[in-house]
Specification:
With 261 residues, the chain is of the alpha+beta class. It has two domains: 2-165, no CATH class; 195-251. The chain has two helices and twelve strands. Strands 1, 7, 8, 9, 10, 11 and 12 form a seven-stranded antiparallel beta sheet that branches. Strands 5-4-3-2-6 form a five-stranded antiparallel beta sheet, with no helix packed on it. A hairpin with a 7-residue loop joins strand 3 and strand 4 (47-52).
């Protein structure tokens, strides 16, 4: 977890030079670069810090629309490439496993295919700072999945706008998601009758559990005693049967004496 800025996997890009001149000139020109870091400023688009290898310059605060990976690229506007502004200053970047090919439904009502890269996510970890956004509110929280688009641009889209494909894992005929937004804030420490603050036992129990356990323990001991008694009786019975069998075998093996009938 980082504050404001997070490093990135080294990603080769081409920078549209008009963004290096405040959109005043350089249109249709490009210079190679490598993404160095990503910046999350609440209420603004994602910003990228880029090493411009032809200049040896580290240029900061460029949006996704400033970057392409090939000169023959599309021209989707920034608000189609990135649907939501950043939710907070606390930022983390991860590369989710398994995910690869995907396509997202854009604000232009079109599907845009591409290759998954990594994900940026926000939270609000400092409770001493007033939380002015929705990074901690489940129904409104969004992730930013970075996608290298087939049209030569880059996008950042939330989970609910992306369809993922995997030759081994997903069906060739996908169902249309018809889910509802999760409006619940799930938590487990909300049961008002469940407390263990009265005990310092390592294997702690509530008072009700202690009573149930004591009753169960007595029942278990009674059952064990009964089982032990029955087992002892059974063992004595089996022993008597063995003795009787040996006696019968012994008697049947005795040879008759002459004159006996």
């Amino acid at each position: 977890m980082a504050f404001l800025v997070h490093n990135l996997p080294p990603t080769p890009v081409m920078v549209r030079k008009e963004y290096l001149y405040d959109l005043e000139k350089g249109h249709g020109e490009y210079t190679p670069g490598i993404w160095i870091s990503i910046k999350s400023v609440m209420g603004k688009a994602l910003y990228f810090e880029t090493l411009l290898t032809e200049y040896g310059a580290l240029y900061d605060k460029l949006p996704l629309s400033a970057f392409v990976w090939k000169e023959d690229h599309g021209d989707l506007p920034l608000d189609v490439l990135q649907l939501w502004d950043c939710f907070d200053y606390d930022i983390t970047v991860i590369e989710k496993p398994i995910l690869s090919r995907c396509e997202y439904f854009g604000k232009d009502k079109q599907m845009h295919p591409g290759e998954y890269m990594f994900t940026m996510d926000n939270c609000h970890r400092d409770k001493n700072v007033l939380d002015q956004n929705f990074s901690e509110h489940d129904p409104e929280h969004k992730s930013f999945n970075l996608i290298k688009l087939d049209n030569g641009q880059f996008a950042a889209q939330p989970n609910n706008r992306v369809i993922w494909r995997d030759a081994s894992l997903t069906s060739d005929e996908l169902l249309q998601p018809d889910f509802k937004v999760c409006t619940q804030n799930y938590a487990v420490e909300v049961e008002p009758k469940w407390f263990v603050g009265h005990t310092d036992e390592w294997q702690y129990k509530t008072k009700d559990e202690e009573e149930d356990y004591a009753a169960m323990d007595k029942s278990y001991k009674d059952a064990l005693a009964d089982y032990t008694l029955k087992r002892s009786d059974n063992e004595r019975y089996r022993h008597r049967k063995k003795v009787a069998k040996r006696r019968r075998n012994s008697e049947s093996n005795v040879k008759p004496i002459d004159g006996d009938s």
